[in-house]
């Protein structure tokens, strides 16, 4: 099932999928702007797309205001994040990388047609790109403005 979906997505956009990485019963693969993780035990397919490559520069774990703002948007405006969440993590097969900020979506429907799956991935990749290029910086700038206003009081 999973390889059929990933191959269809790669073919649609003439992308070269990465090699398949296997850890236990889980499968990891990178196609275009999306990193895929198939969790065999739960039969979930996790889609991740990078928002900020090196999240240690912004340290989201320490920057509680920024993390709270992102989590609030994901909870209150799910359409703006395509039903996803924000996650700071390292990819399993990139052991030496620093944690990155990803937009993450979990797909639990094993009955999607390949066309539906390709459309879902396309929408997810577009949403993640908008967060990478625009929305994340808008949220960060608003927090900076708010902090400056508080300091000037």
Describe the protein in words:
The protein is of the alpha+beta class. The chain has one domain (2-151): Yope Regulator, Chain: A, CATH 3.30.1460.10. Helices cover 41% and strands 24% of the residues. The chain contains three helices and six strands. The chain has helices at 2-12, 64-76, 114-151; strands at residues 21-23, 26-31, 34-39, 44-52, 85-89, 100-107. The protein has a six-stranded antiparallel β-sheet. A hairpin with a 4-residue loop joins strand 3 (34-39) and strand 4 (44-52).
Highlighted features:
41% helix, Yope Regulator, Chain: A, 3 helices, alpha+beta, 153 residues
Name the helicity range.
Answer: 40-55%
Largest sheet features = 6 strands, antiparallel
Span between N and C termini?
58 Å
- CATH topology: the name is Yope Regulator, Chain: A
Number of distinct helices: 3
């Amino acid at each position: 099932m999973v390889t059929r979906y990933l191959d269809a997505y790669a073919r649609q956009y003439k992308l070269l999928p990465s090699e398949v990485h296997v850890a236990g019963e889980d499968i990891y693969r990178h196609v275009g702007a999306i990193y895929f993780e198939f969790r065999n035990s739960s039969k979930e397919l996790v889609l991740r797309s990078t928002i900020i490559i090196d999240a240690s520069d912004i340290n989201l774990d320490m920057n509680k205001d920024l993390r709270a703002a992102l989590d609030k948007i994901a909870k209150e405006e799910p359409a703006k994040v395509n039903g996803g969440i924000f996650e700071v993590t390292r990819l399993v097969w990139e052991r030496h990388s620093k944690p990155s900020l990803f937009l993450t979506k979990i797909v639990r429907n094993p009955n999607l047609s390949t066309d539906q799956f390709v459309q879902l991935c396309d929408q997810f990749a577009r949403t993640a790109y908008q967060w990478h290029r625009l929305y994340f910086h808008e949220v960060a700038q608003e927090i900076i403005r708010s902090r400056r206003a508080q300091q000037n009081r």
